[in-house]
Design a protein that fits this description.
Layout (H helix, E strand, L loop, with lengths): L4 E7 L5 H12 L4 E3 L8 E8 L6 H4 L4 E9 L1 E3 L8 E4 L5 E2 H9 L3 E5 L8 E2 L2 E2 H6 L9 E12 L5 E2 L4 E8 L5 H12 L3 E11 L2 E2 L6 H10 L18 E3 L5 H8 L4 E2 L9 H4 L7 E5 L5 E9 L4 E8 L2
Parallel strand pairs: 3-14, 16-18
Antiparallel strand pairs: 1-3, 2-3, 4-13, 4-14, 5-6, 7-12, 8-11, 9-10, 11-13, 14-15, 17-20, 18-19, 19-20
Length: about 325
């Protein structure tokens, strides 16, 4: 099978993101398959699969914001910061009122510095941190600036006070690169009782919502009945967060030039961008360019010289 586009799937618990890619490759018998962001094996939710030429938009999608529903277990700390690890601390006298919990959430909204956990996939001297963690090693990690746009209670247990082992679900909308298990651990430390992730579901990547995702069973069934291509979104769907230029039949020369990687004067085509978007386009920004036929043509970078502004294709889908 040869197909290019975006397939939003629900990663099940127990599979790695690479396992899902392998499953899709075998199901559709196609090698060129990738994804836009790793989910922990114990987590479930949205995993954006890229097929064929769509693998070339990965660099533009890995930075998309994410939304999670995370179940936080209070009063218990594990060595992996989630339910798969060994308990290393338990605070029996945990008693956290709702008001105190909500106040603690406020401290983690906005831009915060976060240190990647040792169980993350971050590279350190050629190796993944989680590989070193399995060997009992500790590596020095530099804090990273992330942005928590939303952090609020999703579900609260019946009792007003949280005691050891109680579970609270929180909704988290955050920038790419945010570690939710570290967020839970830091929250537990702030509350003075410790905490870990009981379960985690990614409900959104960019504007791709879990309600529009397919299970692996549905993917397999669609391959069998010949309807798989109907589930694949166009490549342009993965670039909807970028300003978009829709060329017309009058832009034939520009389309031909950009289809072979040639640059064009921005003033020749920028009028195709809505006024609201034009006002926020800056030098160096990427712009999605759509053919007159409606198909994706390229992603181009806005480049400014002393006397002219150009659109220079970075990735061409001709």
């Amino acid at each position: 099978m040869t197909v290019s586009g975006i397939l939003p799937v629900v990663k099940p618990v127990g599979m790695t993101s690479h396992d899902v890619v392998t499953f899709i490759r075998r199901a559709i018998r196609m090698r060129r398959v990738g994804h836009t962001g790793t989910l922990d094996p114990d987590a479930t939710g949205v995993l954006v699969i890229l097929l064929g030429r769509a693998t070339r938009v990965m660099q533009f999608m890995v930075t998309l914001g994410k939304t999670y529903v995370a179940e936080i277990v209070l009063g218990i700390t594990t060595d992996t910061l989630d339910a798969s690890g060994q308990v290393i601390a338990r605070t029996e006298d945990t008693r956290i009122p709702r008001e105190r919990f909500l106040e603690a959430l406020l401290d983690f909204r906005g831009e915060i510095w976060q240190t990647p956990p040792m169980v993350s996939a971050v590279h350190y001297k050629g190796r993944r941190l989680y590989e070193l963690a399995r060997e009992g090693l500790e590596a020095q990690r530099e804090p990273r600036l992330v942005h928590i746009y939303t952090l609020e209670v999703h579900t609260w247990p019946e009792n007003e006070f949280l005691t050891v082992g109680d579970r609270v679900s929180v909704l988290v909308e955050c920038s790419s690169g945010t570690y939710i298990r570290q967020l839970a651990a830091d929250l537990g430390e702030r509350l003075g009782c410790g905490a870990h992730i009981g379960s985690l579901s990614r409900t959104k990547v960019g504007d791709l919502d879990i309600t529009a995702c397919y299970t692996l069973g549905e993917v397999e069934s669609s391959v069998a009945d010949g309807s798989f291509s109907e589930k694949v979104l166009p490549i342009s769907r993965g670039l909807s967060h970028l300003p978009t230029i829709a060329l017309t039949e009058d832009d034939g020369d520009a389309e031909k030039r950009m289809s072979v990687g040639g640059f064009v004067r921005a003033r020749d085509v920028l009028q195709r961008v809505g006024q609201q978007e034009t006002g926020r386009i800056e030098d160096g920004d990427f712009i999605s360019v759509i053919r007159a036929s409606g198909d994706i043509l390229c992603v181009a970078r806005l480049e400014t010289t002393e006397d002219e502004v150009y659109l220079h294709p970075s990735v061409v889908f001709a």
